[in-house]
Amino acid sequence: MKAWDLWGGTGTAFGSKGKWHITVLDTETNATEVHQAEFVILCIGRFSGLPNIPELPPNYCSKVFDGKVMHSMEYSDMEKSAAAELIKGKQITIVGSQKSAVDLAVECAEANGVKYPCVMIQRNPHWLLPSNGFLTSHLGHLYFSRFAELLLHKPGQNILYQLLATVLSPLRWGISKFSEIYLQWRLSLKKYGLVPRQSFLEDLSSCQIGILPDNFYDKVEEGSIIIKRSQSFHFCKEGPMVGGEDKPISSDLVILATGYKGDQKLKNIFRSSVFQKYLAPSPASTIPLYRQVIHPRIPQLAVIGYTEGLANLPSFEIRCQWLVHLLDGNIKLPSIRAMEKDTARWESHMKRYGGRNFRRSCVGTTNIWYNDQLCKDMNCNPRRKKGFLAEWFQPYGAADYAELAHQKH
Ligand SMILES: Cc1cc2nc3c(=O)[nH]c(=O)nc-3n(C[C@H](O)[C@H](O)[C@H](O)COP(=O)(O)OP(=O)(O)OC[C@H]3O[C@@H](n4cnc5c(N)ncnc54)[C@H](O)[C@@H]3O)c2cc1C
Ligand SMILES: NC(=O)c1ccc[n+]([C@@H]2O[C@H](COP(=O)([O-])OP(=O)(O)OC[C@H]3O[C@@H](n4cnc5c(N)ncnc54)[C@H](OP(=O)(O)O)[C@@H]3O)[C@@H](O)[C@H]2O)c1
Predict the structure, then answer these.
(1) Is 152 close to ligand 2, i.e. is its CB under 6 Å away?
(2) How far apart are alpha carbons 86 and 189 in whole angstroms?
(3) Which among 36, 43, 326, 408 counts the fewest CB atoms within 10 Å?
């Protein structure tokens, strides 16, 4: 395999004579079966199954925490009535500052009001959008049109695009700054000490921008949500203790909305240490997937659902269509080296714009550029709009690619 120039030896889906051996465990009987397959598609999810549980220093406090600790995944898995019963009349602390954390905080605040305020421990606040308002309704025009993408350096772009992105960089900075100022004003972020360190563009480029539940800041204002910013926390008998405070946060229940270890889950699925290493070369790299679907050095295998997009489900769907074309033999892959060069370019792009969260592998702000590549591979027209103005200035979204599956090629 090491000597191959092309994926699987021929640059096609079913190039080699090799087969995957898949060991399946029946969790009820504990019996295992081994199946063989010519091609494997991994759709094991990135935000499920393997929660990220923060590692805390042991024995920091003399007595262990009296209450219950659970991950947001366990909470989401509960029946609605059981979950409501669990949080009712409890002092709850939530760790995290992203979508799961803010959704949960509002749920707890609605259940318990100011009598038992919900405390959030936020390590880094993020730019979360209100569900309505100027920025939310014009986000597409500002960031997700072809013109908006001209402001960014894109992987594999020619010199003209590079020049344009450089010349237009003050405009790129200005739009991001405008978004920040607007959100600071609209949500009174300064008052609550929740102005993020990173730029709006950085959060958007690492798919870290979500929609706030409608009444989140109303709950903060009325005191049914209390936010504590801290880089670390420890457990004491009464609850978690954050840096800089001398008393623990009294809690009955701590919910860790601390995300998932999607990369570890993908790595764990392989028995071969060689493939494990290919998928997780180092903490300083992304998982290198060509077209965000196949690994250049792992033949006859595809991954759907790892790299995040503008909206996850439609992004995964267009990748599925690309994969069908590959399986049908309609796409001839370039050499392994060329694919590696391409994945390296995407990695540099993610590092450039996604900052310290580049490992989230997000193609959010270059969604059109990325989809153009998939469309060209599939021999479909990447220009999805009618008319020049619409093509350059209208936001692109999932609906623009809806007819792709039915197009002749
Ligand atoms: C609370 C929450 C809300 C979300 N809401 C949205 C939303 O509104 N819109 C959106 O686009 N995204 C949302 N997401 C992100 C969401 O995870 C994905 O968009 C969507 O679920 C991805 O689908 P998937 O099939 O790739 O993965 P999943 O839905 O995670 O499915 C993975 C499947 O693989 C199975 N599996 C895993 N490992 C193995 C194994 N070793 N062997 C066999 N089977 C295995 C799992 O059991 C599971 O059935 C949300 C995530 C969370 C946590
Ligand atoms: N309704 C919806 O659409 C919906 C609802 C929930 C989730 N989702 C999606 O599901 C995915 C996962 O979202 P998520 O919110 O569960 O996870 P996430 O986006 O990965 O966020 C994890 C949060 O935990 C924090 N964190 C991680 N380790 C920590 C530690 N040791 N100490 C303190 N904080 C720590 C992170 O802080 P830092 O920022 O400091 O790293 C971050 O705020 C996302 O794609 C999201 O959009 C969607």
Answers:
(1) no
(2) 31
(3) 408
Using alpha carbons, list the distances in angstroms from residue 63 to 54, 55, 60, 80, 238.
Answer: 19, 18, 9, 33, 9
What's the pTM value of the predicted model, to 2 decimals? 0.94
**Which atom of ligand 1 is nearest the CA belonging to 265?**
38
Ligand nearest to the CA of 257: 2
pLDDT tens, per residue, the chain with 409 residues: 777 899 988 899 998 888 999 999 999 999 999 999 999 999 999 999 999 999 887 666 667 888 999 999 999 999 999 999 999 999 999 999 999 999 999 999 999 999 999 999 999 999 999 999 999 999 999 999 999 999 999 999 999 999 999 999 999 999 999 999 999 999 999 999 999 999 999 999 999 999 999 999 999 999 999 999 999 999 999 999 998 898 999 999 999 999 999 999 999 999 999 999 998 878 899 999 999 999 999 999 999 999 998 789 999 999 999 999 999 999 989 999 999 999 999 999 999 999 999 999 999 899 999 999 999 999 999 999 999 999 999 999 999 998 776 665 5
Q: Which CATH architecture has domain 7-49+262-406?
A: 3-Layer(bba) Sandwich (3.50)
Residue 246 CB contacts under 8 Å (≥ 6 apart), including other chains: none
The 10 Å Cβ neighbour count of residue 261 is 16
Q: Determine if ligand 2 sits within 6 Å of the CB of residue 124.
A: yes
Task: State the distance from the centre of ligand 2 to the C-alpha of 17, rounded, in angstroms.
Answer: 42
Q: Where are the domains of the chain?
A: 7-49+262-406, 58-256
The DSSP call for residue 404 is G
End-to-end CA distance of the chain: 32
Q: Which residue's entry shows tokens 């060209």? A: 376
| CB 118 within 8 Å of CB 105 | yes
Beta-bridge partners for 255: 70, 94
Residues 6+ apart with CB under 8 A from 8: 14, 15, 16, 18, 299, 300
Coil vs helix vs strand at 100? helix
φ/ψ (deg, to 5) at 217: -75, -20
